[in-house]
Write a structure and sequence with these properties.
flat; six-stranded mixed β-sheet; two-stranded antiparallel ribbon; alpha/beta; single chain; 10 helices; 58% helix
């Protein structure tokens, strides 16, 4: 592997972390109170005994933004890993489904799927990842039978030990950054430039977030409060009211089947 130039890494982070902050603000600008309210569990917020409209709005907003931030920052870390592998071992973004990057090192062709953190998916997503690895390996082997291919699930942070399961190598945290750079300290070296002008970006974000909270609170008070109190009945009805089942009415599936037979 080529020795990694940390100045180039710092420059890349400085240039691209701005996109993460821009995406945070863009998410704010696209938010709609009622769209978010439909996606959250009203029973949970009632159980937490939230009585102040602005507190409820803030809680809902923070929950939504947290998942959005994780997604945007995960994309940034994945792109950073591809950049680093490109500098150290001519790694490149993969065209294979479910694979983020590929690189060669010591006669091994690595297929890497990058995840930002250890809690990255449910069982169905993990099964799909396993299948994506198998498909990508099969395609490579068809073109080069002697090629030594190693699928890798690379996770950017966490302390889980390296393991081999489901047919691929799982490499986490410090070990992952070492795999693509052969630099044992890279996982700590990249933390400093992440804070580049962070305060300036965060201040701008908080200013817009405060404006949005005030606007959403005003809307919530108008539509879901009565005499200054949260009307949880209205909240739940808006979130979950969809009654369309009529008691004792038989399903019409049988009729549909008969009709289909006639047309056949």
């Amino acid at each position: 592997m080529q020795e990694l130039n940390l100045d180039e890494v710092n420059q890349y982070v400085n240039d691209n972390i701005v996109k993460f902050h821009e995406n945070k603000i863009k998410t704010l600008q696209q938010m709609n109170l009622k769209t978010i309210l439909k996606k959250k569990n009203p029973y949970l917020y009632k159980a937490k005994n939230i009585m102040i409209a602005s507190d409820l709005v803030t809680d809902i907003l923070d929950a939504y933004l947290s998942s959005s931030e994780e997604k945007h920052f995960g994309s940034f870390l994945e792109d950073l890993a591809i950049f680093i592998s490109g500098k150290t071992c001519k790694g490149k973004k993969s065209a294979a489904t479910g694979i983020d990057m590929e690189f060669n090192h010591k006669a091994i062709h690595y297929l890497v799927s990058v995840k930002s953190g250890p809690n990255w998916g449910n069982s169905s997503q993990q099964n799909k990842q396993e299948q994506d690895f198998k498909t990508a390996v099969k395609v490579l082997k068809q073109s080069n039978h002697t090629l030594n291919v190693q699928p890798v699930l690379g996770i950017c942070y966490g302390k889980t030990k390296t393991s081999f399961l489901r047919g691929y190598l799982k490499v986490v945290g410090q070990n992952f950054w070492y795999l693509i750079s052969e630099n044992k300290h890279l996982y700590t070296d990249i933390i400093e430039p992440l804070g580049y002008e962070a305060k300036k970006h965060n201040d701008k974000f908080l200013e817009q977030k405060s404006t949005l909270i005030n606007s959403f609170t005003e809307e919530f008070l108008k539509d879901f409060c009565v005499d200054g109190q949260i009307d949880w009945g209205k909240v739940v009805e808006f979130n979950s009211g969809n009654f369309d089942l009529i008691k004792n009415e038989k399903p019409k599936i049988g009729k549909l089947k008969k009709r289909n037979k006639k047309t056949a």
